[in-house]
Write a structure and sequence with these properties.
about 425 residues, alpha+beta, ABC transporter transmembrane region fold, 2 domains, five-stranded antiparallel beta sheet, 5 strands, about 5% strand
Length: about 425
Amino acid sequence: MRALLPYLTLYKRHKWMLALGIALAILTLLASIGLLTLSGWFLSASAIAGFAGIYSFNYMLPAAGVRGAAITRTAGRYFERLVSHDATFRVLQHLRIYTFSKLLPLSPAGLARYQQGELLNRIVADVDTLDHLYLRVISPLVGAFVVIMIVTLGLSVLDVTLAITLGGIMLLTLFIMPPVFYRAGKNTGQNLTHLRGQYRQQLTSWLQGQAELTIFGASKRYRAQMEATELQWHEAQRRQSELTALSQALMLLIGALAVMLMLWMASGGVGGNTQPGALIALFVFCALAAFEALAPVTGAFQHLGQVIASALRITELTEQKPEVTFPQAETLAPEKVTLTLRDVSFRYLDQPINALNALSLQANPGEHIAILGRTGCGKINAVAAAHPRLGSATRRNYAQRSSAILAERIRLTPDHQRGAAACPPVQCHSA
């Protein structure tokens, strides 16, 4: 859950719109509950009044309440979707800009460890997944809790025992069901995020490498590997769908049990009235409608594992340090620089074999050195070793750590500059 804290701060930029979206969601749920509750009471009261009460029964006020609740529910649902999605899109827009701004300082060397399509998948798909955090987790959870409190207080005016019973059942459901299904769907959500990115990487590589795969006879093998990943992805989606269906079934079961309990308790009397009449229908239909507020909560927490996995992938991308950092203050390079490398070795990331072993070099002021060798022997990496992470690179017998100073003294041809820019990060160590 800590992985979501940096992204929760992004919502502060649009807290008023997000709060308005939650308020509209609560208003919509209350209007829906009021519509069904009032309709059930109105029909039951009309049936009890019969023809004898056709002139004495006031049907205008309940009918106006039903129409008002219906209009409020429709308008509230429209504006709630409008405000909530607009605020979410604004948050995602800021998150994409923030993520891309963190990518810009990174050289191609710092991004070389990501496969083709991986960066695009993280910027697009993983960022889109984070919209579940508000739309499917925060808003339904807060809305359900507030609705439970308001419904309980409203029903307590008629009967405290019935109101506390219904409110207690709903609160227990709210506090127990979401954590249970979060645990059940956590691994599935993480696998969905991982398999989605893996499949898109494989698809991109397969499309771009058709010529090479065909020449070397590896097209069928690579296609089979990609199809295996796709089947695993579909299997993870199936497991998540089964959990969603199970959560909905349990919610319907709990709601049905609550309705029968309200029917049994209300039939014995409501608020001291031993013949409650239409009030029985009021409590029954209120219990039936109130569980609508809880319906999205259990399913929402199944997506929380997928949201956390996407947040971790974006955090891994944005917390990288640039390979080259420029000093805040202007640094004046000395006119004469002596560059010395002593027993510097380095290797590519995640590779066990060194690209260069025990490299020693001294370049005096004004001296020109040509590094010759076959393609791929490590000429550009030898230049990159002038700023090692481990090993020894000195200037005038002092450890050299400033890439900006070295960049002013090391000259590369245009072809070599492009190669150096594409050079992946190296790990150096003393021989």
